[in-house]
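User: Please predict the structure of the protein below. I'd like the answer in structure-token form so I can feed it into my own downstream comparison script.

Assistant: Understood. Taking the following sequence of 308 residues as input:
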Amino acid sequence: MTVYEAQQQLQTALAELYDNREAANIADWVMEHVTGLRKIDRIVHKQSSLAPDGADRLQEYTRQLLTHKPVQYVLHETWFCGMPFYVDEQVLIPRPETEELVEWVGENARQWAAAKGQRAEGKGSVAAINNNPEMLRILDIGTGSGCIPISLKKKLPQAEVYACDVSEGALAVAARNAAAQQTPIHFLQVDFLDADSWSSLPEVDIIVSNPPYIPQSDKNTMLQNVLAYEPHLALFVPDNDALVFYDAIARFAQRTLPKHGCVFVEIHEDLGQKTKGLFESKGFNAAVKKDFQGKDRMVRAERLVDKG
């Protein structure tokens, strides 16, 4: 079987589950893994024979893909903020919307570093933006694959970055990714909904989180590959308490954030104003930000008073 024939065969099989464009994209990704060749190189060498071990891998990948298993889990790889991340069923597959959250945090973090430097050292120069990043302490709550803290550490290499998760399996994946990207992160296993566990977490300047926020009733509208393979622990919250994690984050932030410290969270597109109102009710100045699709997707909440 040639490289071209193998790709066409895979794409045809995937067309039973996906539209033509997505089937083609998945086939490209898989064939690059199998052959080690980029798309242009596969075109040049399309009549080359597929190696026997490559044919075996392709057969196994195809079998898994036809069970609706996401290609990221099949290949144990996804890309986030320009970096490859290992993923398996212990963690959610990072989404492009979360990259926007990281960008927003990164932009604000430098401003916060400058302001903190000015307060601490009496500096009035904007040069403090780059001179004081080491003063930043960041905590990611519910880290999953570690994509958020690792990406932030890349943007702010002198910042001290912490990340927590309730899942031991997720933390193992996150630690693996941090090692691969050579980004030192302090990982902590914490059941964040248990307020008694908060004493094990550090005081920080910025809190970021993409917590579970999908109401259980939304299961009926979700894709099969999400429901069957992605961890429900990281996805769903009770219908009658959809903001449970945001409430816990706000209460934790009241205890730990300094004045002007910030919380950045990803949110359910239908709950932007409710999430904003929750933070405002606890003494924060909050704002909702839309994603690239024009949907309410993030909230930034600034602490207005000294921690208490």
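That's the full token string. The first strand starts at residue 78 and ends at 80.
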